[in-house]
Amino acid sequence: MLNDSSRDLANHFLKLSRLGSTRSAMDVDDDDDLEEAPTELNTINSSGGFLLVSPDKLTVKYTTVNMHGHDVGVVQGNRPAPVKRLVYYFEINVKSAGAKGQIAIGFTCEGFKMRRQPGWEQNSYGYHGDDGLLYRGQSKGEAFGPTYTSGDTVGGGINYATQEFFFTKNGEVVGTTRKDVKGRLFPTVAVHSQNEEVTVNFGAAPFYFDLKAYESQERMKQQVAIDNISLPPHLSYGIVRSYLLHYGYEDTLNSLDLAGKSNVPPISLDQENVYNEDDLMYALSRRKVLRQLIRKGDIDAALGKLGEWYPEIVQDDKSATCFLLYCQKFIELVRPISIVFRRPCLSLEGIGANIQVGELQEAVTYGRTKLANFFGLPGFEELVQDCVALLAYEQPQKSLVGYLLEDSQREVVADTVNAMILLRNPKATDPQVWLRSDLERLLRQLTASCLVKREMEEDQGEAFHLHKVLNSSD
Please, which residues have CB within 8 angstroms of residue 93's CB and are 6 or more apart in sequence? Predict the structure, then answer.
């Protein structure tokens, strides 16, 4: 019989087997494009006595003669700048510089005094057209860039990776300044002399500035910084080797070792504390065979080999390991079948009344024989229901339970069996060691570090999604 460590290990993979059911929802939740961005000017909170906003809320004009320094026509975007991305950016086109060209573009906080130029008050930044100065929370500006006037297109952006503001003129970056303000910031435009007029582009139209190229350059800078990090020689070779050992990829491991003989100098990985190779060599050939069988969908053969080599693993037919193998057998029976139902049916008891008799009978019989034993058991029932639900769809691979038909589901079962065998090693001490390879531990640490860094920056910047990095073609 299996001990508590074995049960805990198998239950870990049981939970892992249903992660695919929430993958689509997670992808949607993680999509930073869903964060609402400004789309127009806020005509409610503005210094309306000095300016006129067009009906489309994208053009603003100073219509009076300013008598005082605080007679500024200021208007913010209707929403704060989104923060869960690499860069936020918007532009203005100066239709007319008016009497004095006292136009400004920048960012201001919520509650900003709407009769002051951006940059004149704390928690605000502004690049001014009449003098080219940058104002950062005080009335005295500093040399920054060229002036701008009628016909110019000027942009303002926030680089969340570097925590900097940047401004552009006619498609070129003018300069950057450190972003040392917390809280929500609104894209802001100001006009301050008669007949000054600007049109704002929040992204509905193409930008004059090549934002995509800028983002690519910023990501390249990050990659170069990563590439310049010094690592112990050939550490990556050892980490990859430990991964192949851990999961029983014996053939790939032999190919790696063969290639490494000519171009990888000897290195003592034990001294680097990377992994214990002797432990991972345990039952390597058998683990390889079992993984190959499960990846091909030959679950009966895999169960047979387990019964021959490690009968204690499959002795309890209500264990999490056996359950995952039974579920996978059921999935393999359903996989090649195209089903037409009169109505959806999500219970084992009612399946027979709603399906076409014939090639489905084996799957139904197997489900009733093996899976029905797990109905009502905590931790098992949800996966049973998902498996049975495969029979309710004409195209199950496109349904909410389609994740069960993906290759990744076979891998979860293969990983479960692999871990249970490694746990049979007499030298095994800590069961948690067999849950993940050294490579996966490093990736988990990377993800955790990125989350902590983002939290320290008030959740600003792109979220780190490991699956996007691994699937990237760059």
Answer: 152, 153, 198, 199, 201, 208
For the chain, the 3-state helix, strand and coil shares in percent, each to the nearest 5, are 40, 15, 40
Q: Angle 100-102-108 (CA atoms, 0-180°, nearest 5)?
A: 170
Region for residue 458 given its phi and psi (left: phi exceeds 0; alpha: psi -120 to 50; beta: otherwise): left
C-alpha–C-alpha distance, residues 386 and 347, integer Å? 10
- Angle CA 444–447–448, to nearest 5: 85
Q: What is the pLDDT of residues 56-78, one digit of tens each?
A: 999 999 988 766 666 899 999 99
* pLDDT tens digits along 453-473: 777 777 788 877 776 666 665
Taking the C-alpha atoms of residue 160 and residue 328, their distance in angstroms, rounded to an integer, is: 45
Kindly give the pairing relationship between strand 196-201 and strand 124-128.
unpaired
Residue 53 CA to residue 385 CA, distance in Å, equals: 57
Q: Which stretch of DSSP H or E encloses residue 442?
A: helix 438-456
Per-residue pLDDT of 265-300, as tens digits, reads 555 444 444 456 667 788 999 999 999 999 999 999
Ramachandran sector of residue 85 (left: φ over 0; alpha: ψ -120 to 50; beta: rest): beta
* Distance between CA atoms of residues 125 and 107, nearest Å: 5
